[in-house]
Amino acid sequence: MVSENIKQRDDRVTETSHSALLKxxxxxxxxxxKPVFSEVNFELYPGDRLALIxxxxxxxxxxxxxxxxxxxxxxxxxxxxxxxxxxxxxFQRVRQRMGLLFQDSDDQLFCPTVLEDVAFGPLNQxxxxxxxxxxxxxxxASLGMAQFAERITYRLSxxxxxMVALATVLAMSPEILLLDEPTNGLDAxxxxxxxxxxxxxPQAMIIVSHDRAVLxxxxxxxxxLQSGQLDAAVMHRHPHQHAHEHLHVHPSSxxxxxxxxxxxxx
Length: 266
Fold this sequence. Notes:
Layout: E1 4-5, E2 22-31, E3 34-44, E4 49-53, H1 60-67, E5 75-80, E6 83-84, H2 88-95, E7 98-101, H3 114-124, H4 129-142, H5 158-170, E8 176-180, H6 188-200, E9 204-208, H7 212-218, E10 221-226, E11 229-239, E12 245-251, H8 252-256
Parallel strand pairs: 4-9, 4-10, 7-8, 8-9
Antiparallel strand pairs: 1-11, 2-3, 2-5, 5-6, 10-11, 11-12
Helix pairs in contact: 3-4, 3-5
GO cellular component, one term: ATP-binding cassette (ABC) transporter complex
GO molecular function: ATP binding; ATP hydrolysis activity; ATPase-coupled transmembrane transporter activity
Region (Disordered): 238-266
């Protein structure tokens, strides 16, 4: 059976009619003088849902942190919303419009109660306390978490913290979502609720996930970070010996070279 390329669920606005929301050119980062990645280049347009694939330790989470100014690159440039980002002041403006969901929810939650955590971002955006609380309540309700508003954050389960962490990001109405393992710690019902919610959102996204269901339902294109380099990738399905299909992502160069053909089985 011929491998089936996944149809691009492409709500993406054409590049000719809209400017890129995010442009990355020649980006490099090193930790303790050890290179993590170099010469990273890509653009993100309205409607893009970009899967960022790579092995553990490849630098995916680090790249997301660099994009919002939480880690400093040693080379290259970042242009967000038409503005070249240099220094903390410019990245503070970027973080008002580009929301990062951290891989570890405990890195995102620091207020005593859930409502205070979710209202924190809108308050920093200049909303009044009343407006911020209303925004937080609406966001929690949209995620099926309204009943958690007065809960003590540190007493929540891992899955509950994950949903609240996402609420803190969504409450700021970002134009770009950076999602680092968004389904970590969620049970099946919560994961389904989360995926349905994310599918309905209009924002451009960069998604890091080892969960194939997340990539299959959210992503419309993919890149792969390996050996410190970022390459275009192809998402496709093919049948397995146990009689159902899985989503696979391969570097474009390997697909073009015929290394992943129709008879591949796992």
